[in-house]
Design goal:
alpha/beta, Rossmann fold, Arc Repressor Mutant, subunit A, 5-stranded parallel β-sheet, globular
């Protein structure tokens, strides 16, 4: 399967570098480049990418606003936010807007490629040390005030185990190894968890797990 990617960053040099990295891989195709959020939304409507690599700070329409607009698309592309350590508030807003994960801008090329493959397979992309710091600051606000708290009693014991591991940023492969099951079984558990708890994706599952104290943030 070839993964189509749209790159949105206001720096042409960054976009060119990312394109060169991705197009060296046979299973990834760059379908467009955008210099701001408005252009990213416009190009996404035209090209229908699987994934949008989204910078947070861009002119006209920033990455948060663009992510929010893309979340209304059908089919909805997965958004990977490109962030730095000093953008916690914007990153938090982007996750609430529907981003499927994030990468630090100093990520190595091989890690960028693997991240795209991970998100394309349906998994969330959450760097543990940044996620914990982020949720430590914002977990009380990550869920809408009007949202009812899902009842974990609807989950099986194994599904609670899987939810806990998801919140610790474990991949499907890592969960499968830890629980001694197949990746297919893990995917079935994840789908059941999202359905039973009324969650959009794994990012919301992580937020919920922290929110209810299933796992707790640690200060770094």
């Amino acid at each position: 399967m070839t993964v189509s990617v749209l790159v949105a960053d206001d720096q042409a040099l960054v976009r060119t570098g990312i394109r060169m990295i991705l197009e060296a891989r046979e299973d990834i195709r760059v379908v467009g480049e955008a210099g701001d959020g408005a252009e990213a939304v416009h190009l996404a409507a035209q090209t229908q990418p699987d994934i949008v690599l989204m910078d947070l700070r861009m002119p006209r329409v920033d990455g948060v606003q663009a992510t929010q607009r893309l979340s209304a698309f059908q089919p909805r592309p997965s958004v990977i936010i490109l962030t730095t350590f000093d953008e916690d508030e914007l990153l938090y807003a982007a996750l609430r807007a529907g981003a499927g994960g994030f990468l630090l801008k100093d990520t190595r090329p091989a890690e960028l490629v693997e991240a795209i493959r991970v998100v394309a397979s349906g998994e969330a992309l959450l760097a543990p040390r940044v996620t914990r710091r982020l949720l430590d600051r914002f977990v009380a606000d990550m869920r809408p005030e009007t949202a009812a708290m899902p009842d974990l009693a609807d989950l099986t014991n194994r599904e609670v185990e899987v939810l806990t591991l998801i919140a610790q940023a474990a991949s499907n492969a890592e969960i499968a190894t830890k629980l001694d099951v197949t990746e297919g079984t893990v995917k079935s558990h994840v789908s059941a968890i999202l359905r039973k708890l009324g969650l959009r994706d794994r990012v919301q599952a992580v937020v919920l797990a922290y929110d209810i104290g299933l796992v707790r943030p640690r200060h770094f």
